[in-house]
Specification:
Mean pLDDT: 94
CATH class of the largest domain: Mainly Beta
Radius of gyration: 26 Å
Oligomer: single chain
Number of domains: 2
Shape: flat
Number of helices: 4
CATH topology of the largest domain: UDP N-Acetylglucosamine Acyltransferase, domain 1
Largest sheet: 12 strands, mixed
Strand order of the largest sheet: 6-9-12-15-18-23-26-29-32-35-37-38
Length: 335
């Protein structure tokens, strides 16, 4: 593909030879005369070891005029990188078909749907146009799935689950399993029925081995545009706002609510009934036990405002030295 054609796709401007042929995208330190790389900043120039076919740069980066590269100037280098990967490595989509080895109950299918072998779909399920359901998926009766959604092998979808359009669900994920709710009684623990189901809105991406529990009477809700990494647990009655990002091994306890554009680092724990406002950011391995207003940054266990927590930890690491000084002072006073 020629540099000019790539620039048109990226909404970029060419500086150099627009007719140069590009065959692939490469990391900055592996780019050669047949490939294209994306530079995030001026420091990336040092990483280029060979003559590059083309280099994508942000508008604010000054090109290295000593080189003979073709440049493509773009507004957002990160977005350009995504588009380039999609351009050279388009996602393989199976041809619309229904495997004769799949079981389908009384279902309503849209146009151009793919259903893989050994998938089981119960009665009254609705699946939208161009949705892909790979082999070995279980979809309980009554589930509703929108258009252009992709469900990878090994996903389990319980009853009373609604999934929007343009959703991606990776292998091993379980949606709608009964929430962890029990009442103590004389004979032990009585499970509270969880019949609220789950609602997953449009444009949500869910990683592998994620569990999203059914709500008790109202649905557990995952808002539009949410991105969930692998190995995340979302308990019953949780509400997650739009465009929130959740990194791996995070656990969110029951009835907690996250606003829009919240960011949770890896291995974050959130206790039940916590409310985090829009734009809250929680650092990795933090334990959130209290609600936080919008745009707060949290860190540590128990999680506190980021700058306060850093100062606390800085003092904490000095405690052994402080303890020695206190003992020396006590010894002097006794003398």
């Amino acid at each position: 593909m020629k540099v000019k054609a790539i620039a048109d796709i990226l909404d970029g401007e060419v500086d150099g030879d627009p007719e140069r042929e590009i065959k692939d995208i490469a990391p900055v330190d592996e780019v050669d005369e047949n490939t294209i790389a994306v530079l995030r900043g001026e420091e990336d120039w040092r990483k280029i070891k060979k003559k590059a076919g083309a280099v994508v740069i942000p508008h604010n980066v000054v090109p290295d005029r000593r080189s003979s590269y073709s440049f493509i100037r773009v507004k957002n280098a990160e977005v350009a990188f995504v588009r380039l990967v999609e351009l050279f490595y388009p996602r393989e989509v199976p041809q619309p078909s229904i495997s004769p080895m799949a079981y389908l109950g009384d279902v309503k299918l849209g146009k151009d749907v793919y259903i893989g072998a050994y998938t089981w779909i119960g009665d009254a399920v609705e699946i939208g146009d161009r949705t892909v359901v790979y082999p070995f998926v279980y979809i309980a009766g009554g589930a509703k799935i929108g258009a252009n959604t992709v469900i990878y092998p090994g996903v389990v979808i319980y009853p009373r689950v609604t999934i929007g359009s343009n959703v991606v669900i990776h292998s091993g994920t379980i949606i709608g399993s009964p929430g962890f709710g029990y009442v103590r009684c004389e004979d032990g623990w009585l499970h509270i029925p969880q019949v609220g189901g789950v609602v997953i809105e449009d444009d949500v991406h869910i990683g592998a081995n994620v569990t999203i529990d059914s709500g008790t009477l109202r649905p557990t809700r995952i808002g539009k545009g949410v991105k969930i990494d692998n190995l995340v647990q979302i308990a019953h009655n949780v509400k997650i706002g739009e465009n929130t990002v959740i990194a791996a091994q995070t656990g969110i306890a029951g009835s907690s609510e996250l606003g829009n554009w919240v960011v949770l680092g890896g291995q974050v724990g959130i206790t039940d009934h916590v409310k985090l406002g829009d734009g809250v950011m929680v650092a990795a391995q933090s334990g959130v036990t209290k609600s936080a207003p919008p745009h707060t940054k949290l860190f540590g266990y128990p999680a506190r405002e980021y700058n306060k927590a850093r100062r606390t930890y800085a003092i904490l690491f000095e405690l052994p030295q402080i303890a020695r000084k206190v003992k020396e002072l006590e010894k002097r006073l006794k003398e």
